[in-house]
Amino acid sequence: MAIRNTFAGNPLDRAGDLRNDPEWLEAQEANPEAQAMILWEGRPLVEETPEGPRLAWVSLEHARDMVRDRDLFLGLWKQAPVFAVEFEGSLDPAEGPVRGLGAFHEMRAAAALLPAADAAMAGAAKSLFDWRRRHGFCAACGTMTNTAAGGWKRRCPACATEHFPRVDPVVIMLPVFEGGDEPRCLLGRQAAWPQGRMSALAGFLEPGESIEEACAREVEEEAGLTVVDVRYHSSQPWPFPSQLMIGLIARVSDDQARPDQTELEAVAWLTRAEARAVLAGAHPTIHAPLPFAIAHSLIQAWAEG
Fold first, then answer.
1. What does the pLDDT read at residue 1?
2. What does pTM read for this prediction?
3. Which of 106, 138, 284, 302 is paired with 151 by a 20 to 30 Å CA distance?
4. Which of 169, 195, 186 has the alpha carbon at shortest distance from 298?
């Protein structure tokens, strides 16, 4: 991929067809080379090494000795099976069962520490565990569902409905106005963000809506601007809990932006030089999105022309 955002680039072979075979999956679970990463309430266990922070791995057998009935199959790494297990509850397992193996980090903090492949694997595991917590009962009849396909499916024993992990598509766009003396991009600010933080605009796709239509609607709703052209930039899996961020550059018809005071409390137009200053941390009032967020990539791509 020409552009690979954080949480993308998972190196595992997901074995999407094979994991539906219970006998094959049992063989992977019994494989002495099976490894498991460890999470606690969505936080991955990270160890310090001479090469820097990385995911902490243990044998699947060891992981299941610590956590029962809380594992999922992630895929194959060079034909060796890879799993994840998750602790639940308020007590930090790093002070108990996994003492000495590393420390648990909130996923956003982990994304800033881990190698790209590790962050991608951990993000996928977090999304799957979050989905399992939220979808324990059948949406068709209300019966408690059973795990299948190594955690990638839930099956209702009463009505046989099969449920699959959700991915919620979100458009995230950088509005750009090319009129006037020089091009400018628009950043917006939500009231709940840290002081000075501004970012690209974003919103969920609605049923029956194309990506381009969602982009135009969100820009009009949040900033009162009319989109005249949409260009795709890249996408990003976003495991909070399980979104797909669709990154866009949106050309708008004018620069009369008006924050709606519901989603956005303020907006700011930036020239390319000003956008570069924001990314470098040199702007006097505006702070950039976090470096691992796709919004940062969108601003950087536009600022560098």
1. 67
2. 0.95
3. 106
4. 186
